[in-house]
Amino acid sequence: QVYLMESGGGLVQSGGSLRLSCAASGSTASISAMGWYRQVPGKQRELIARITRSGSTNYADSMKGRFTISRDNANNAAYLQMNSLKPEDTAVYYCKADTYRAYSYWGQGTQVTVSS
Questions:
Q1: CA distance 20 to 112
Q2: Phi, psi (5° rounding) for residue 71?
Q3: How is the beta sheet containing 18-26 ordered, strand by strand?
Q4: 63 with 36: CB under 8 angstroms?
Q5: CA 81, 29, 2, 5 torsion: positive or negative?
Q6: What is the average per-residue pLDDT within 71-83?
Q7: Which residues contact 62 (CB under 8 A, 6 or more apart)?
Q8: How is 50-107 classified by DSSP, letter by letter?
């Protein structure tokens, strides 16, 4: 079982930057990849970026250039650096861990609000 906890969300002004953190605990050795997603009420949860255990990354096309995903040396944490934030980036941001057993775990999410 994997447990995820997001942190770093909050209120930021338009054009500002924010870094989100996702701490994984439990059976972290089973994690094959970690990713960041976001969701606005009434809309589908959407992919921002994903990073594998080996460091390979993929981004949603609309997220490239402003958002950067990274991981720590032990592969038990993931980060999302967000730059040039816009009001439309306001959402709940979720961390997800994929496992080698084709089962994924979600964090509870952290609110990011970008003021104009």
A1: 9
A2: -140, 165
A3: 2-7, 18-26, 77-82, 67-71
A4: no
A5: negative
A6: 89
A7: none
A8: EEETT--EEE-GGGTTTEEEEE-TTSSEEEEEE-S--GGG-EEEEEEEEETTS-EEE-
Answer yes or no: is pLDDT of 68 > 90: yes
With a cut of 80, say whether residue 74 has pLDDT above it. no
Question: Do residues 1 and 38 touch, judged by C-beta distance below 8 A?
Answer: no
- The DSSP code for 27 is S
**Two tokens at 32?**
């094959």
| pLDDT surpassing 70 at residue 73 | no
Cα–Cα dist 49/63, whole Å: 8
* DSSP category for residue 41: T
Residue whose entry in the numeric block shows the structure tokens 């002004």: 13
pLDDT, mean of residues 6-16: 97
- The label of the residue with tokens 């775990």 reads 105
* Type of residue found at 14: S
